[in-house]
Amino acid sequence: MKRQQHLQKLKDGSTFDLLIIGGGATGCGIALDAATRGLKVALIEKNDFSEGTSSRSTKLVHGGVRYLERAVTKLDRVQYNLVKDGLRERGFLLKNARHLSNRLPLVTPLYKWLDIPYVFLGLKLYDILSGKQNIGHSRLLSRKQALRRFPSLKAAGLKAGVLYYDGQFHDSRLALSLALTAEQHGATIANHLAVSGLDKEDGRISGAKLTNSLTGESWQIKAKGVINATGPFVDQIRMMDKPAAAQIISASTGIHLVLDKGFAPPDTGLMIPETEDGRVLFVLPWEGHALIGTTDEPAEVTEHPRPLAAEVDYLLRHVSQYFNLQVKKSDIKAVWSGLRPLVSHPTATDTAELARDHVIEESDSGLLTIAGGKWTTYRKMALDTVNHALEQFNLSAPKPACQTERLPIIGSANYNEKNDLELRKKYGFAADIASYLNRTYGDQAERVAELADPEKGIRLVEKHPILEAEVLYAARFEMAERVIDVLARRTPIALLDTEAAKQAAPRVLAIMANELSWNQQRCEEERLLTEKRLSEAL
């Protein structure tokens, strides 16, 4: 269903069981959970699906090794439960989104003899906590084995390494797929649609005023319950409900650099659990490139945080400390930053209660806010939120129990990792294109391939497997409404190679303008916005 059809359903005056504000990991997960239980669901997002934090993660599906250390050393049950939930949910995500996720071996290099038993035992505990969802067993690596796995590691002083396993995924595609799967189960979804006010009857929230971010048109919508799932921006909605509400979000920023694939092995990541200032450093293979991140700095909540020069310098400095690599700023192909929403309950008395765990809060007027958490646990957060909503809003669901534990998302049900061979044979694609289409669209890949006729079956830019046909597919079937929606979220090109994205932008604009019937004014607006986003590192 096209976006315009969803907008019409949101205008028809009917009452929804749930209005979910926020189209990131949490909001899309809630929409899917609620829709599969049979509730009448509306999901809206001010910008594009996953445009905020949910498209700018480290691309890891993980329990949280560093949280486990805090849980053990500080006897912190909150951190312990966060790890246990994360490992369990990691297993579900890898099975439910098979085309968008994979198991990833990670090496932790050890330069002190005393670190070897400490880190190894910690990662064995990590394995144990994953239980039936274990995806691989940790093991010690000799110095020689560690260097074979990661040849660019600095050999001087290296004692050993530990190999363990976590998951990796394509975050923006997963968020979109959750929304589209929710749509398949009856949810009404719309991006570029903002809440500009909350309606109340007898002091209780009864709906909201919606404003089309692309046209400025506004209207009212009725809902039995409203859920605030806007990630780092939950306080803005909470204050729309109650201007004097105490803030519950403390944001930090994570920065990521993208380099050529030669800077990391194609099938192994590296994790430095603690740099000299206590941060975690990752070097990961991702989409044929090397992804380096991430720092943790306090940050203001803004829609498009800009990476700071000091943060870039920090990462480059640490790369030189751990690797026999001379990485220059000119080697950086892309850089982007995302906000992490650390949350504490308004009644918390200790800042130690800040965590990556999630909190569900109910306001006096009935606004239900879900805050905190992380990508890996999106499904558990959705489950808890919908359970709470059923009780709070006195809703009757045809299927009261959660249905998403083993629910394949769109693209995953009939996914075959070897189907790229069939795509090559049937459509004549190059190997890199066939592989990319298969793991990006899963069992929907042929729908894209069918659009790639001899005229459209060409790459957007050289050296990248992304096709012009994907732009048409995104505009026609995936609710892409802006050029940057395609460059940064329907495809990964803007996050991989800024210059390539700039080269692709005019062609993306031309295809979308033709498909969506844009006039000259809209085309110019898109051109200027795309230039702005790409110049600001998204």
Keywords summarizing the entry:
single chain, 538 residues, alpha+beta, FAD/NAD(P)-binding domain, D-Amino Acid Oxidase, Chain A, domain 2, 3 domains, 10-stranded mixed sheet, 8-stranded mixed sheet, 18 helices, 39% helix
Indicate the CATH topology of the largest domain. FAD/NAD(P)-binding domain
Residue runs with pLDDT of under 50 for 5 or more positions: 348-354
* Strand-residue proportion: 15-25%
CATH superfamily of the largest domain: FAD/NAD(P)-binding domain
Total number of distinct structural domains: 3
In total, the number of strands is 18
In CATH's first tier, which class of the largest domain applies? Alpha Beta
Give the overall silhouette. Answer: globular
Give a quick account of the main beta sheet: strands, pairing sense, barrel closure.
Answer: 10 strands, mixed
What is the CATH architecture annotation of the largest domain?
A: 3-Layer(bba) Sandwich
Distinct helical segment count: 18
Helix content: 25-40%
